Amino acid sequence: MPVPERLSEAGQDWDFADIARLLAGRLREKPPAYGDLIARPRGDHDLQEGPAEIPDEASAIEAAVLIPIVLHPAGPTVLLTQRATALRNHSGQIAFPGGRVDAVDGSPLIAALREAEEEIGLARERVRIVGYLDAYLTGTGYRVTPVVGLVEPPLELVINPHEVDDAFETPLAFLMDPANHQRHGREWKGRHRTYYAMPHGDRYIWGATAGMIRNLYERLAGRSL
Q1: What is the pTM of this model?
Q2: Strands 127-132 and 191-197
């Protein structure tokens, strides 16, 4: 069976290995290096009108997230979390499981898998890593490496209530449809900031999370190499 061309159209005839090959051919094989002059880090600065203030990559805190694509027979979904409302930063926001890369981690990959286990109980042996997206610089001073992995259902999650209020799945077909990639804006630190938003039902996916989803779309569409 030939390798499928659109992951968002996956169904019962799609083979796990075929999907893995498709993604591996479109994603970065290794984590994006600091100071990559060919593919500079992405970020909300990409959307700002006029001269944009790009965060300093060298001084940013290293972080990583896991983008888990769940391969349901009816079609793949993306596993997301809603951060705990009791958290001091970004409380209640939609996010991928992830956090800082600690010294004991040694790599963004290990950090992303560790955080997924700690936040939602997703065992690392259930995740097949297929590649990386471009680094993402946030306005709050983080340089995030998105790690993309495939997960076969059923999911057996254990939510850590200190970090996450909920975990949920959003159809990949919805997230990979550019018609759903809205541009919203708000005032932040005295400036008007523009960002991607992908509202789905009662979930408001926006900011860095939506920006990384947009990067995944561009790579799968062959628009970002």
Answers
A1: 0.89
A2: unpaired
